[in-house]
Amino acid sequence: MSTSTTAVPDLDDPTTDPFDVARAAATHIAEATGVPGHDVALVLGSGWSAAAELVGDVVAEIPTHEIPGFSKPSVAGHGTTTRSVRVERPDGAVRHALVLGGRTHLYEGKGVRHVAHGVRTAAAAGCESVVLTNGCGGLHISWRPGQPVLLSDHINLTAHSPLEGATFVDLTDLYSPRLREIAKQVDPDLPEGVYAQFPGPHYETPAEVKMAGLLGADLVGMSTTLEAIAARHAGMEVLGISLVTNLAAGISPQPLSHAEVLEAGQEAGPRISDLLARVVKSL
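The structure corresponding to this sequence follows.
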């Protein structure tokens, strides 16, 4: 299917409104997928990629880097395609999910606008809610690798915000209590926790993990908080789910590695993918 060839504003140009680029990206997605609008967005982190096939029927799949404002991921194990998925709810209603591949992390050095671009594009595409997932380190010995955890709040330790200028947004209920309740109806055993984002790409030191715990964190990672803030600013409800892929530094007796994160995600894939699919169908 043909897509628009209209020139797109440069996301890196400080005079460009990033929401103009998001609207251009949403237009591209609508034309490339043949789906004029989407209802819910999914950002799939480490270990969550198999969920898209269980959510519903994939209507269309497009390379993420071809969408205005996006680029190829620089990290092994992160998705490279964006999919439009037809979701049939238990009551027979049909919705469309936008599964965003190729999440941009702050540590890639592309700037905060690129980190927030995915959720802003989802909002421009019509999404009223977004499910943000990630793989992370756990601070509780009882949360073994493979444990999904609902995010109840976060601590942003990146020293960055996706908001520019005098833009004030209330984050009191950033992680929607309504959506968390729906998730608990799907799986009553889901625990909740506070997620702390460090800038990365290095893993946290044991002292930094201890500090995060003293601040109230239960989980540590390198994504999600900036996207969540941008999503709330764009008017979406936010559901955050972390997958504990390893015990954090100082909690685990073993050295940390990216390979360990990917392996834990693969092992937990079937369970968490089924969980996410059931949650999305219930939203």
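The radius of gyration is 18 Å.
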